[in-house]
C-alpha cells in the first residue's frame, strides 16, 4: 500500500519563477491496486513519481509504503522496495548482453549473492517461466542479444527485470510513450499480464487516454500539483476517451475564463 500525505514541493521558492510542483498532494493506493495517473504537462506527475522513489526531496509531507514512512530513506534503500520503468526502452537493459544475462544482472541487483552460481539450468528455467508471463515469446530467446529485440520486446524485458525482486510497488513512468501505437499496445498487454500474475501494486503515469480508459482500477487526474479527479469502479468501467479529454478541456476553459 502506498500513501502520499500532504506532499509539498516548491521549486525556486521566493523567486520570480517559483513553481509549485506538488501542492499538498494526497493519494492512497491499496495493495494490489493499479492506479493510472493522467494530467496535463506540468501537472506534477513526474514530481510525484520522483518523490515516491526518493529522487525528489519533499519540502514537507510523507511517503509511506506498506506502513513504513520512507520519506527520509535514501534512494538506493528505497530502490529495494520499488521498481520503476522509464520511457526509453534502451535504458533499462544492456544491449550487447543476452536476454538471460540481462535477467541475471537484474537478479544480481536484487540479491548480490546470486552471480556466483551463474546461468545454471535452474535459473534459466526460472527466467523462462518469468518471461513467458509477458506473452511475447521472449522465453524462447534467452540467448538472443538484447540489441536484436524489437523496442516493444526490449521494454517488456525491462519491465520483467524491474519486477524480479518482487517489489512492493511498481512505478510505470510513461513506459509506452516512446513506442509506436501498435507496439505501445503490445507492451501494455504484456504489462497487464505481468502485473496480474505477480499481483503488483502499480502506479502508471500516461498521456495515452485510451490506456487510461482500458487499464487499471482507478484513474487519478493531477492538476497543479494535487489530485483533481479520481474515477474508479463502475464509473471507470464506463468512461470513454472523450469523457476523459473533457475533464482536461474544463481546465482549459477555466483558464480562458480567468484570463
Ligand atoms: N527540477 C525542476 N526544477 C524546476 N522546476 C521543476 C523541476 N521539476 C519540475 N518542475 C516544475 O514543476 C512543475 C511540475 O512538473 P512535472 O515535471 O512534475 O510535471 P508533469 O506532470 O510530469 O509534466 P509532463 O507531463 O510535462 O512530464 C512544472 O511547473 C515544472 O516546470
TrEMBL record:
Alphabetic keyword roster: ATP-binding, Nucleotide-binding
Top-rank taxon: Bacteria
Entry protein name: ABC transporter ATP-binding protein
Listed InterPro entries: AAA+_ATPase, ABC_transporter-like_ATP-bd, ABC_transpr_LolD-like, P-loop_NTPase
Single annotated GO MF: ATP binding
Entry keyword Disulfide bond: no
Domain ABC transporter, first and last residues per copy: 2-249
Keyword ATP-binding in record: yes
Originating organism: Shinella curvata
Amino acid at each position: 500500500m502506498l500513501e502520499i500525505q500532504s506532499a509539498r514541493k516548491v521549486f525556486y521558492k521566493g523567486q520570480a519563477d517559483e513553481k509549485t510542483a506538488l501542492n499538498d498532494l494526497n493519494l492512497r493506493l491499496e495493495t494490489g491496486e493499479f492506479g493510472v495517473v493522467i494530467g496535463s504537462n506540468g501537472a506534477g506527475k513526474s514530481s510525484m513519481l520522483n518523490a515516491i522513489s526518493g529522487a525528489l526531496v519533499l519540502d514537507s509531507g510523507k511517503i509511506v509504503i506498506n506502513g513504513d514512512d520512507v520519506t527520509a530513506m535514501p534512494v538506493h534503500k528505497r530502490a529495494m522496495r520499488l521498481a520503476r520503468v522509464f520511457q526509453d526502452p534502451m535504458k533499462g537493459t544492456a544491449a550487447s548482453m543476452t536476454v538471460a544475462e540481462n535477467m541475471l544482472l537484474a537478479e544480481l541487483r536484487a540479491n548480490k549473492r546470486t552471480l556466483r552460481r551463474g546461468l545454471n539450468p535452474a535459473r534459466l528455467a526460472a527466467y523462462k517461466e518469468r518471461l513467458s508471463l509477458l506473452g511475447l515469446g521472449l522465453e524462447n530467446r534467452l540467448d538472443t542479444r538484447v540489441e536484436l529485440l524489437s523496442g516493444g520486446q526490449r521494454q517488456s524485458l525491462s519491465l520483467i527485470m524491474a519486477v524480479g525482486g518482487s517489489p512492493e510497488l511498481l512505478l510505470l513512468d510513461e513506459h509506452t510513450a516512446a513506442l509506436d501505437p501498435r507496439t505501445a499496445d503490445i507492451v501494455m498487454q504484456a504489462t497487464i499480464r505481468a502485473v496480474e500474475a505477480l499481483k503488483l501494486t502499480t502506479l502508471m503515469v500516461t498521456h495515452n487516454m485510451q490506456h487510461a480508459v482500458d487499464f487499471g482500477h482507478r484513474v487519478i487526474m493531477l492538476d497543479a500539483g494535487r489530485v483533481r479527479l479520481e474515477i474508479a469502479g463502475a464509473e471507470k468501467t464506463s468512461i470513454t476517451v472523450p469523457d476523459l479529454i473533457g475533464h482536461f478541456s474544463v481546465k482549459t476553459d477555466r483558464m480562458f475564463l480567468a484570463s
